[in-house]
Automatic annotation (TrEMBL):
InterPro entries: Acyl_CoA_acyltransferase (IPR016181), GNAT_dom (IPR000182), YpeA/RimI_acetyltransf (IPR050680)
Entry protein name: GNAT family N-acetyltransferase
Domain N-acetyltransferase: 2-160
Domain of life of the organism encoding this protein: Bacteria
Length: 160
C-alpha cells in the first residue's frame, strides 16, 4: 500500500542528493545556464525555500512509502506547500525513484495525497511540470490534473 509520512531529519540529506542535481538539470535546460551556474542557483533556492529543512514552517516534506504487513520502504519524495486560506496545496517536488517507476506508484501516491488533503478540507492541488517531462505529465494527466497555463521565458542577448 502506498502512502506518505513526514520526512525525517536523517533522510533530508538523501533528498538533497537527489533534488539538487535533478533541479539543476531542469534549470540548465530551461534557462540556458551552465551546469555549475544551475547547481549554484538550485542550492540557493533550496536554502531559501527550506531554510530549516524538513522543519521549515509552511512546507510539507514527505517520504512516499510502500507499506506491507511487515516492512516499510521509501520509494520516493513529495514536497508541497499548503495554502489554508485558499484550501489548496502546491506540489513543489514529486519524485518516485527510478527503480520503482512504471509500476503505478506515482498515481497511487497522488491519489493518497488527494484523499488526505480532501479529509483536511483542501479543494485543489496545483503544480508545475516541465514541458519535456513526458512521464510526469502522463502521471498527472491520468490522475485528473489539467493544464491551466504555460510558463514561457526568453533569454536576453547582451549588448543589444
Amino acid at each position: 500500500m502506498i502512502s506518505s509520512r513526514p520526512m525525517r531529519d536523517s533522510e533530508y540529506p538523501g533528498y538533497l542528493e537527489y533534488f539538487l542535481p535533478d533541479y539543476a538539470a531542469e534549470i540548465s535546460t530551461n534557462y540556458g545556464l551552465s551546469s555549475l551556474e544551475a547547481l549554484v542557483q538550485a542550492k540557493r533556492e533550496i536554502a531559501h525555500d527550506l531554510p530549516y529543512g524538513v522543519d521549515t514552517p509552511g512546507e510539507v516534506v514527505l517520504c512516499v512509502v510502500n507499506r506491507t504487513s511487515d516492512t516499510e520502504s521509501v520509494v520516493g519524495y513529495l514536497w508541497y506547500r499548503p495554502d489554508l486560506a485558499a484550501r489548496s496545496a502546491f506540489i513543489k517536488d514529486f519524485h518516485i525513484f527510478a527503480q520503482h517507476q512504471g509500476k503505478g506508484l506515482g498515481k497511487q501516491a497522488l491519489n493518497a495525497l488527494e484523499a488526505e488533503l480532501s479529509r483536511a478540507g483542501f479543494e485543489q492541488i496545483k503544480l508545475r511540470v516541465a514541458e519535456d517531462n513526458k512521464r510526469a505529465k502522463h502521471v498527472y494527466e491520468t490522475t485528473g490534473f489539467r493544464v491551466t497555463g504555460v510558463n514561457m521565458s526568453k533569454t536576453i542577448k547582451s549588448g543589444l
